[in-house]
Amino acid sequence: MDRSEQSPFFQQNPFFKVLFREIDRMSGSPIYLFSTLIGPLFAFVILLTTFSEYIPRNISIALVDRDQTTLSRKIGMYINATPEAAITIRVPDLQKAYNKMARGEVDAVVVIPEDTERNILRGMQQRIPVFINNMNLLKGGYLQKGIYKTLATISTGLKLQIAMKKGRSAEQAMANVMPVKLHQHILFNPFGNYAYFLLTALLPLMILVFTLLTTIFAVGVELREGTGPDWLEHASGSIIVALAGKLLPYTVLYCVISMVMNVILFVQIGTPLNGSFFMIALGELGMIITYQFVGILFVSVMANVRLALSIGSAYSMMALSFSGLTFPAFGMPAFAEGFSYVFPFTYWIHIFVSQAIQGAPEVEGIKYLSIFLLFIFLSVCSFPRLKRILQTEKYWGKI
Fold first, then answer.
1. What is the tens place of the pLDDT at every residue in 31-74?
2. Predicted model pTM
3. Contact call for residues 16 and 244 (beta carbons, < 8 A)
4. In whole angstroms, what is the distance from residue 97 CA to residue 110 CA?
5. Do 358 and 274 meet the contact criterion of CB atoms below 8 Å apart?
6. Residue 59: its H or E element
7. What's phi and psi for 250, nearest 5 deg?
8. How far apart (Å, rounded) are the C-alpha atoms in residues 61 and 112?
């Protein structure tokens, strides 16, 4: 905006003077364009491409068929038909299959022993060994579920055939084979879609990473360039007005990015929305503002842009690990569980899951939103120090 076109109110009001000053700085540097628009959107594209399948499919399996009978071929065919598994190689002995799994060429080995068909037809119990590489828990869990379900289906079918050959009706045979039948109801994420599980955390994580680091840079650059006194002069000496005018453009831009994220999550991916969208949007706004205040706190305490950016990077990326989403907080050691509470992202996850997935009452979200105020209050306590270091020449030029 041309300053000549601004009304006297905008020219004299300290808040707008700082606001237009920051917009001028943003428009003159590609760093701000990348950190507020290009970077977050590019991260979204990469994550969506990575998790485009939503559910792991066709995980590679090696089959060792030592029986070579009609039944063994049927077992292999059924395993290959499961969505989770794909028999990519058939080898004659276990050692070769195991070597391929050790080299990472396959993720599981299924062995059908000799005399499998003959033992089953005689009514004898037959074990089918399955070796699963569980280093990747997600793939290992899906493989275990898919293979077990297939073998259980085959086993049940064979028992039914044997029972019916002995003269029992289909109903009697089924009752004999499965006297207790599990009737399960999966309430949340019934399709096992790990996009609901991961993207709902990774997409907002990208927003908070860019929010925190951009805030540190935008505030810290005033120290690096020694422009703190000029910044405060535009704000008539008020650090609160200076910060409000400087950070408002970033708040607006990241709120726009969060709306793009919501379209991706709820429209493109189809994440359930069983609760209040207003509470989710309010939580996103609270998360963005809270991480901006955390960025201010880092600059105030460290008075060094490079150090603040380094620690801010680690702090933002550790948030996912300690949020309790990938590994439950109650299973962590006491120190780690306590450490999880120092990340605002932990409370954002609670807000999103309770509102979007579980459909909990709005009061659940308000409870976690109120915790954001503690982080904001802690940052506000550092404002006097920030004002002091902005005016102190010995802190200028710190990289």
1. 999 999 999 999 999 988 877 766 677 788 888 888 888 888 88
2. 0.77
3. no
4. 9
5. yes
6. strand 59-65
7. -70, -40
8. 13
Residue 295 in contact with residue 215, Cβ under 8 Å?
Answer: yes
The whole-angstrom distance between residue 313's C-alpha and the CA centroid of its chain comes to: 17
- Strands lying side by side in the sheet with 85-90: 85-90, 59-65, 108-112, 130-132
Pairwise CA distance, residues 143 & 86, whole Å: 10
Give residue 7's identity as a one-letter amino acid code.
S
Average pLDDT, the chain: 84
One-character DSSP codes across 261-312: HHHIIIIIS-----S-HHHHHHHHHHHHHHHHHHHHHHHHHH--HHHHHHHH
Task: Measure the CA–CA gap between 160 and 177, rounded to whole angstroms.
Answer: 7
**Radius of gyration for the chain, computed over Cα atoms and rounded to the nearest angstrom:** 29
- Check: CB of residue 54 under 8 Å from CB of residue 136: no
- C-alpha 385: how far from its chain's center? 35
Query: Is the separation of the CB atoms in 319 and 345 below 8 Å?
Result: yes
